[in-house]
Each structure stands twice: as C-alpha cells, then as structure tokens.
Design goal:
A four-stranded mixed β-sheet has the order 1-4-2-3, with helices on both faces. It is globular and about 30 Å long. The protein is an alpha+beta fold. It has helices spanning about 5-15, 20-30, 45-55, 65-70; strands at about 15-20, 35-40, 60, 80-85. The protein is built from four helices and four strands; from the N terminus they run H-E-H-E-H-E-H-E. The protein is about 40% helix and about 20% strand.
Length: about 100
Amino acid sequence: MDLSKELKVALNTGKVEIGYKVSLKIASKKKAKLIVVASNAPESLFVKVKQAAGSEVPIYKYPGSSWDLGGICGKPFPVSTITIIDPGESAILKVQEG
C-alpha cells in the first residue's frame, strides 16, 4: 500500500485533522480511527499521543519526517501528527500499527 497516496485520498475525501494538540483532543474523545506520527517526532510526543489514544486507537509511525507529512498535506511547514477521523474513500485504516 502506498501510504502517501492513501493519506492524500483521506485528506481529499474524508475527515482529517492535522497537528499534535488536535490529535490529543480527538484521541482522548475516542473519535479517531487512526493517528499517523512522523518518524522524527520527539519520543515524548509519541508517548503522549499513545496515552491519549489508549488501546482503542491505532497509531502508525510514518517512516518519513514531519516535513514529508507536511508536504503530503500541502502545508509549507512540518506536520508531526495526522489524525484520521473518517478515512473517506481511502484504505488508510489497513496500515499496521507500529
């Protein structure tokens, strides 16, 4: 599966939130279906997201950097987390937790 392509489809057809603070809010409310975290995100950020998500929300560690995630989102700045609320027409929820 091409994760970058599926992320773009989810961004265009589903409901996706960008950013660490928003991810924490949505995860704590258990509305997230998947959280994607950049590989270069600080370990403390990853731990906080994992705690907020609990065991109900899968977390995927994206192999690229936060700049790569920002580029996929069409943003001119780094993006540490992307929260999938509704995947739309993408198959992004089929990625493995990791």
